[in-house]
Amino acid sequence: MTTDTAVPSFPLGRGKRRKNLTLLTASTAMDNAESSVVTVLFPLMREAMGLTSSALGTIVAVGKVVGMVSGIPWVLLARRYPRKVVLATCSGFWGIWVIAAGLSTSFTQFVLLYAIAAAGFAGAGPIALEILGDIYGDSRRGGATGLLYGGVALIAGVSAPLFGLLAGSADGWRYGYMASGTICLVVGLLVLVLLDDPGPAGGGTRPALDAVERRARSLRSGLRELLATGTFRLILVQRLCSGQNVIMSFGVVFLVEERGFSTATASIVALPFALGYLAGTVLGGRVNDRVHRLRPRSGRIVMLQSSQLAFAAVAFVTTQVAWGGGIAVYAVLFALLGLLQGQVPVVNRPLIMAVVRPELRALAFAVSVTTVEALAYAGYALLVGHLGDTIGLQKALLAVTVLLTTANGLASAALYRPYARDRAATAEPRPGGPGRPRPSSP
In the predicted model, is pLDDT for residue 330 greater than 90? Predict the structure, then answer.
């Protein structure tokens, strides 16, 4: 059995890696913290502004669509200027717009300011993932990605019930936004001062391929190479057909509208979801790395399919069965949903890292995460919001989080053959010698 021994592009000491990972997690979490305010306190916004469920879909969709457009420009800025400066700006200092959104006086004004804020946060994910991919080798990226997304989920899960406490005030949603924006500013300052990033030229630790580096700076050539990779194309299709993410965007509203809980009580499920997500990312990342080492040609695809099909089954039980026993039963079910949802990034992100050259990873994540995933998220958020107004959120979630996820999990089998081929063709430096050159086409 072949063992992957690829080393990181920028080797750093364990202490510095942990510090970097903590800062990358905090910067990535800012977008999720802002989303928590919307999902948890939307019932208050609905009452204050006379909105319907479709308005929540509009808010989520606008944020994702704007992020879809703005992600790549942030990545290009990070190629020209120091990455930590760009990351601190888009994930931290951009929080001023979150504060402004909390001060808005109409729904239209709120959506506009929310969109501007989302345009900044969209750059954090791809840049953070590029840095993570540079400091961890292939055999450890599942665990590292798990820690990052687990930390993001934990921050969102802890903040959601805290925001839920603001439901006692009619202006609670405003206070939530102002608090979230202030935290963003603090995180931006910490990233700017404390993040260790040697930059793309990192003292010769990357392969000395000057011609390749020049070509990677070209957006057109970079996109052409990415789309020529069969695995990457299929991952884009797979993410485009993923409706899992809307479960927490509408989860609290679902429990309020369909199960009769108060906003403060319903918001409790965000914490067990986050804890489940944390377990799914941290433990799932480690399991994913182990399965990958045992079955390097197919292990990650097996993990991806298993998590999707299991998620669809638990989503059915959660949304289609009216459980007695108060919020405790739903807390357990949402914890299971979080556990299974946490499997997705620890498989999906290392999959991309394994088939894309280091120079193009930030662009790959800008395309896959902030563009395609954002487009899917926006579309399904609008769809669930519209269906929620017409046929109810229970049936809407059945269609998107259960049936679509089941079909997507089965269709993911198409990744097995191209992933094995593209992974073998991707060059990464290995101890004792250079990696194999990647062919120009798969």
Answer: yes
